[in-house]
Write a structure and sequence with these properties.
Structural class: alpha+beta
Distance between the termini: 34 Å
Order of helices and strands: EHEHEEHEHEEEHEEHEEHEEEEE
Number of helices: 7
Strand content: 25-35%
CATH class of the domain at 90-186: Alpha Beta
Helix content: 10-25%
Largest sheet: 10 strands, mixed
CATH topology of the domain at 90-186: Alpha-Beta Plaits
Radius of gyration: 22 Å
Number of strands: 17
Shape: globular
């Protein structure tokens, strides 16, 4: 991670995200769940909410009920970061069943036609308007081809319907359908990060009954949702105003990541790495002008630092 330094300042307030008490972690946490086939994403989020005794839970990207794999669940206050989780690339591994015998060369030829920018219409049962839209398939890799079953890995833009993709490939090959599918990555989160709901439930019970802190292995701080975003580290003196929805001015910047671009979504963090707000950059990282550096979309921090004007 590369930063451009505007000023140096030692933090006076707050705490590092990893030092939050368990109760506070749960109120500001995300769970990378290994979803199982059957329930909807909404149903699974509700189950996690109940298991962890939360008032609210959301998810960062719908999975079809019969699809398993990586589903990011947000808890309580962390539901505010859902916009930061949406729109990220996805990776899937699945099985496509061909409706006739197909040679390896035929299969590869059909798959290549659906790599790059494609046009899709959402399936009939989807929750979105059924109109054609463009999506990018970054890669469609054939892992194994045995008889009429094709094991594949696909990396694609968010909102790509893999079931429709299999059907369209099949139209060039005499028919095909998606037989099984598993999401192996959503943005930066992969199968390696995913945890099972039974393990979450056991860890939560151990915390409530024995004071065990193993639940930290299953719930991540809300800041984990911002890893892929450009970041602006703000001075302690700017936290109060930003946490109350005021724009961030250049004078309130301590450090700024050099990937920050005007118009892009940014995470505003304290000197201790606490998530203050999601915003939109009003200038590039290298811009030397004074004025508004970022406008606030959503305030994440629940308890702002003291107002420095009265200190």
């Amino acid at each position: 991670m590369s930063f451009i330094t505007r000023s140096a300042e030692l933090p006076r307030y707050g705490k590092y995200p990893g030092a939050r008490p368990i109760g506070e972690l749960l109120e500001n946490g995300i769970v990378v769940l290994d979803k199982w086939p059957g329930p909807t994403s909404h149903d699974v989020a509700s189950m996690v909410k109940n298991v962890l005794g939360r008032a609210k839970a959301g998810h960062g990207g719908t999975l079809d009920p019969m699809v398993s794999g990586v589903l990011v669940i947000t808890l309580d206050n962390a539901c505010k970061v859902i916009p930061a989780l949406q729109g990220q690339d996805k990776e899937y591994v699945g099985i496509m069943r061909l409706h006739r015998d197909v040679s390896g060369n035929e299969l590869l030829g059909a798959v290549k036609k659906f790599t790059g920018e494609i046009t899709q219409r959402p399936p009939v049962r989807s929750a979105v308007l059924r109109r054609e839209r463009k999506r990018t398939v970054h890669g469609f890799e054939i892992l194994e081809h045995k008889d009429r079953d094709v094991l594949f890995r696909v990396r694609c833009e968010a909102g790509t319907y893999v079931r429709v993709l299999c059907h369209k490939i099949g139209e060039l090959l005499g028919g095909a359908h998606m037989k099984e599918l598993r999401r192996t990555a959503a943005g930066r989160f992969t199968e390696a990060d995913a945890v099972r709901i039974h393990d979450i439930a056991d860890a939560y019970a151990d915390w409530k009954e024995k004071g065990s802190e193993d639940i930290r292995n299953y719930v991540l701080p809300v800041e984990a949702a911002a890893e892929h975003l450009g970041k602006i580290i703000i001075k302690d003196s700017a936290v109060y105003s930003v946490a109350n929805g005021s724009p961030l001015y250049s004078t309130g910047i301590s450090r700024i990541e050099d990937t920050v671009k005007k118009g892009g979504m940014v995470a505003l963090l304290t000197l201790r790495g606490e998530f203050v707000a999601l915003g939109r950059a009003e200038m590039d990282a290298t811009d030397k002008r004074k004025g508004v550096a970022a406008k606030i979309d959503r305030v994440i921090m629940k308890e702002p630092y003291p107002n420095s004007r009265f200190k």
